[in-house]
User: What shape does this take?
Amino acid sequence: MRLNGAPPGPGPGDGPIRADDLPPSARDAVAGLWRYRERVEREAAALFTGLAADLAAAGLPALAARARVAADDEARHAVRCRAIVDACRPGLPPLSPRAVVVAPRDPGDGPPADAGRRALYTSVAMGCVTETLSCALLLAMRDAARFGPSRAAIAGIVKDELEHSRLGWAHLAAVAATGDVTWLTPHVAAMRADALRHDVAELPTTEAAGPGADDAAADLSSFGILPRARVTIVVEATWRDVIVPGLARHGIVAAPAGEG
Assistant: This one.
């Protein structure tokens, strides 16, 4: 799988749709997904701000500048997500961001507390794993989306997420060129699990409309909500074809999808 930002061409029968075309339960599902993404984007903004500080402390000013831009990008993404929520459920308040920490689950098993290793751990977890998976999912969402606010949000977000993913891979390559990064190997499975929990498992899918929903409510891919089966296929392919070989180039061993 190759991640790129080339826009898709319109498919047969494609055309704009409106939130009013959906029954209330489906509008609630669409609003729920983008409300959740709004919170995730604000959490990511805080994480990139912290990463920028660690990169600067580690003597990597160019990467630190890219991380600061990424933090601004994520805050802007939250605004895009809010536009979709407002289109489907005006007045629905945002979810409060959680205090998300990117660090080994067992403090005794983590990298030393120096800024350089802390920054590398965060870059790999966020850029190489989470943002790379996010890019693949967003590209799949973009190909299916026909609801105007969703299409606009996805098109804008995916361009930035590609850069955020590249930031992680660039940081890893820079450090690996002059030192050993294989200490990350024991942590990759936890990074993947965290990414899947926060950015996949907790997200509503087309099943969110409920088992009794009609066809229009059950298929919400036009609004940027993929079927769970499609999400699983995209995640497994991206992990196998992009992330595992990318990490392996630097000596970091990652288990195939479904293992570890």
In short: Residues 5-13, 209-217 have pLDDT under 50 and may be disordered. The CA atoms of residues 108 and 241 lie 32 Å apart. The domain at 21-94+107-248 is CATH 1.20.1260 (Ferritin).
